[in-house]
Amino acid sequence: MAHLNNFTRHPNWWKNATCYQIWPASYKDSNGDGVGDIPGIISTLDYLADLGIDIIWVSPMYDSPQHDMGYDIRNYEDVLAKFGTLADMETLIAEVHRRGMKLILDLVINHTSDEHPWFLESKSSRDNPKHDWYIWRDPKYDADGKRQPPSNWRAIFGGSAWEYVPERDQYYLHLFVRQQPDLNWENEATRRAIYKSAIEFWLDKGIDGFRVDTVNFYSKDTTFPDAEVKLKGEPWQPAFQYFHNGPKMHGWLKEQRREVLDKYGDVVMVGELPGTQADEVLRYVSAEARELDMVFDFDIVALGGRHSLKPHQIYKHKLTEMKSAFMKTQGLLTGTDAWTTVFVENHDQGRSLSRFATDDPKYRVQAAKMFAVMLGTLSGTLFLYQGQEIGMVNFSKDWGPEELRDVAGLNYWKEINEMYPGDEKMKKAAMEGIQKVGRDNSRTPVHWNAGPHAGFSTVKPWIRVNDTYKEINVEAQQKDPDSVLAFWKKMLKLRKQRADVLVHGNFEVQDYENLSTFTYVKEKDGKKVLVALNFTNEEQPVYVPKTLAKNKLELLVGSVDRPVERLAPWEGRAYIVQ
Ligand code: TEU
Q1: Does residue 12 sit within a domain?
Q2: Which residue's C-alpha comes closest to atom 14 of ligand 1?
Q3: N-terminal to C-terminal alpha carbon distance within the chain
Q4: What is the rounded CA–CA span in Å between residue 44 and residue 448?
Q5: Ligand 1: nearest atom to the Cα of 157
Q6: Would you say the CB of residue 359 lies under 6 angstroms from ligand 1?
Q7: What is the pLDDT of residues 554-567, one digit of tens each?
Q8: Are residues 23 and 136 located together in one domain of the fold?
Q9: Are residue 358 and residue 444 in the same domain, yes or no?
Q10: Average pLDDT for residues 357-374, to the nearest whole number?
Q11: Cα(575) to centroid(ligand 1), Å
Q12: Could you confirm whether 272 is annotated as catalytic?
């Protein structure tokens, strides 16, 4: 275990880092086809370095039929032509490294595309050598002798999780859309092939790690029992408990680390980990376990019932629920050898201002800076999503369903129309829900300037540009020292300078029950920082905990130019406790 001692003695390179997620289709188009691309990414690397970014995460740019925007991979070892070439990726890796930054890619190995050659072989016959590389089961027959799927599981994006293939007279499992068949991890030859093609191929090219898609879904309950009926009157039922954190998960991740990743040194693995309690999360992220380095916990993105309900059932969460979500992820560091992440946005979510604060033009700049104070002072590796650094917001309420591009949103919209034909009230509620939490909100093009198509492309982009690009864009904010962008730059610098307490400190909420403010203390080796955040349109008092009543508070950073005693609407401040 020499490497383990080595890793624990030297702080890992990714701990103090800020990572910036790029969604290639919507980031920057260099060749005028309306779709972002890798040369487009390369053209902005100085911008990202200047912002203070240390790691760039590029979402799937692999060859793919794009049924789920690249999370359906046809060939792990190639790049989608619209995004560029393998040579472009090699240039990207070199250019990122030349600027002292690191690059991570998405690792999508719970499933492949149904056009991946492995699947084409697997589905061709029960005698094919790859016949069990995916999850195949025999049909069930009902009392009338009608063929039925092996279980009543509902796919995450709607419909049955099983698809029938006549060549085999069997069904295959797909937890997401039907074009995303789940790989059979139980088969060792399959695991070896995945490691070689999806992981080693890219580590050999010099990337520094992966963001690992749905990392806790590989191991399933292989008896595939019917799930309890929760959606009354519907044929397909949520079966989450049967396909996440299955019995083999930890063994497989240990195998992957030991036999694959360790050859390449301190490769960072950031797992996406839905629906997992803190004690189970720790089993994945403790340094000693040597599985994942950190994970994205879903409590924060599930606020308002985002995951258990359908978008028309979303409710306004309370600030206490948000505090609880952060208490869970921050708490992972207390008294453990584990590590954690800080994030509020990604390509699957609505924009954080619209979702968790306000996108009212009167307050949104303030709120964006307040979020920068919050995220900049929480412990763990910080993840920003493209456009978050300029305070991009959700698409406007008057967009209709014709603007939707995301398969999850489109499937849901179709389902609503089929289940409630002619019900205008329901349709309105559904569209309102999509406007709040739909994945397209974060997938509209980045606003580079106020020119045509927001400077993203020279032609009409594949998805409509958010209407706010004239007011919210990179070029305008680069000229404005009071902009959200300028504030993020300042915050990221400060986070580095005070990394001990800001990135590594213990976290303690002070005003849990308060529904208007979020106040916490960060502490490391006796050094303390008090953070006070206002989550309302009204002024609020700064809550100073009794234990600090006698201490002097020195303003470290604040989102308002000349702060007064009370917090202004959506103001955020951090004080050094003396
Ligand atoms: O998302 C995993 C996941 O659990 C999603 O179901 C998430 O809950 C959903 O997007 C919310 O609507 C990952 C990727 O981040 C997502 O983009 C992919 O669509 C999905 O896996 C399948 O690969």
Answers
A1: no
A2: 213
A3: 42
A4: 10
A5: 6
A6: no
A7: 999 999 999 999 99
A8: no
A9: yes
A10: 98
A11: 38
A12: yes
